[in-house]
Design brief:
Order of helices and strands: HHHHHH
Shape: globular
Helix content: over 70%
Number of domains: 1
Number of helices: 6
Strand content: under 5%
Radius of gyration: 16 Å
Structural class: mainly alpha
């Protein structure tokens, strides 16, 4: 059962760092931007042409919802190790497998699945770490 007696600030900070912080590095030239662009078929021009306020705003709201629900699932005052194990279960077990099913039917590549599943797992690990440390 979900317990919404959570540290709301930890969920907010975890979502911000997990989504915006990890995402800005994960999908940057330092890591996977060019491979990700190739796999989804988006040019540099198309990447720069998006409505960034809308994209980042909605992405953050969705990440915050995920962080709040994850915190509620973890319950009040989870141990760091338990939060990180739960993050791996969510990232790889729930999200990764769900993306995998969709990607199979959409004929998307294993490479794209690995990049996106890796990011989402890293995001949940950061959220779990923040929630687990911030009692």
């Amino acid at each position: 059962m979900l317990d919404f007696d959570i540290n709301w600030l930890a969920a907010l900070v975890g979502a911000a760092i997990g989504n915006l912080g990890v995402g800005s590095v994960w999908y940057s030239p330092l890591l996977f931007s060019k491979v990700w662009q190739r796999e989804v078929g988006i040019s540099d021009v198309e990447v720069r042409s998006g409505n960034f306020a809308m994209i980042f705003g909605v992405a953050f709201i969705l990440s915050l919802i995920a962080a709040v629900l994850f915190a509620a699932w973890l319950g009040p005052n989870p141990e760091v190790g338990d939060a990180l194990i739960a993050a791996l279960v969510v990232g790889l077990g729930f999200v990764g497998t769900s993306l995998g099913i969709n990607y199979l039917f959409e004929r998307k590549s294993l490479t794209l699945w690995a990049i996106n599943t890796g990011f989402l797992t890293a995001e949940f690990l950061v959220i779990g770490l923040v929630i687990g440390l911030w009692h």
